[in-house]
């Protein structure tokens, strides 16, 4: 007999929680772990995955027991971590539906779906650049307003400069766009909405000589 017991839980959540760390931190899992260890008199308990609804006797019995518990009037305390996740999901959904109405907001076209905007691995300067590119407001494209000067133009195309124009439109950057992003035909939200693109975007504006003017 091996010195461990293998348990096949009928809820995938249990297995995924156990797989995240050697020691479960979820209060209900901690209770389950202690209960199992006491009941089985084993310290080494391993978990395995089994297919659901495959008419495996033990799994069917566990399903029946779980269903009978859902009708119970007994109230169980809900761990704060579960409540927190639930509130976060609800807030995100309310925030998103509010944001869906803000179609006049410049940032909306860049970022229709709310998500973390700043690349987590970036330094402070890169975060500033990334945020300004999202907002479409940079020193290069907007400082003329402060100084009462004429707006800047692309010297080759003679077209007014904007973040969108620099990143997506100017045909003289097509070769570089293709080399870095593997495409020349994209919209600004597809580049800036994905923070994994940030290093390529920084490289792009660096090669174009704009990085110190953002
Ligand atoms: Zn141009």
Automatic annotation (TrEMBL):
InterPro entries for this protein:
RNaseH-like_sf, RNaseH_domain, RNaseH_sf
UniProt domain RNase H type-1: residue ranges:
1-71
UniProt xrefs under PROSITE patterns? RNASE_H_1
Coiled-coil intervals, chain numbering: none
Q: Which GO terms describe its molecular function?
A: nucleic acid binding; RNA-DNA hybrid ribonuclease activity
Protein name, entry field? RNase H type-1 domain-containing protein
Organism, per UniProt? Trichonephila clavata
Q: Quick one: which gene encodes this?
A: AVEN_72278_1
């Amino acid at each position: 007999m091996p010195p461990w017991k293998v348990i096949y839980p009928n809820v995938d959540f249990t297995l995924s929680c156990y797989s995240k760390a050697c020691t479960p931190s979820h209060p209900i899992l901690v209770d389950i772990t202690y209960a199992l260890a006491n009941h089985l008199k084993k310290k080494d308990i391993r978990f395995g995955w089994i297919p659901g609804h495959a008419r495996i006797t033990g799994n069917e019995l566990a399903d029946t027991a779980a269903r009978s518990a859902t009708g119970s009037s007994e109230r169980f305390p809900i761990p704060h971590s579960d409540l927190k996740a639930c509130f976060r999901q609800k807030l995100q959904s309310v925030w998103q539906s509010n944001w869906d109405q803000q179609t006049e907001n410049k940032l909306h076209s860049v970022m229709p779906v709310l998500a973390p905007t700043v690349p987590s691995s970036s330094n402070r300067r890169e975060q500033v650049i990334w945020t300004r590119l999202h907002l479409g407001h940079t020193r290069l494209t907007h400082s003329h307003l402060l100084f009462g000067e004429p707006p800047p133009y692309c010297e080759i195309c003679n077209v007014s400069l904007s973040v969108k124009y620099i990143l997506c439109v100017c045909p003289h950057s097509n070769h570089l766009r293709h080399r870095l992003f593997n495409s020349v035909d994209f919209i600004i939200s597809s580049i800036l909405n994905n923070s994994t693109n940030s290093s390529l975007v920084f490289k792009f504006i660096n090669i174009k000589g704009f990085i110190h003017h953002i």
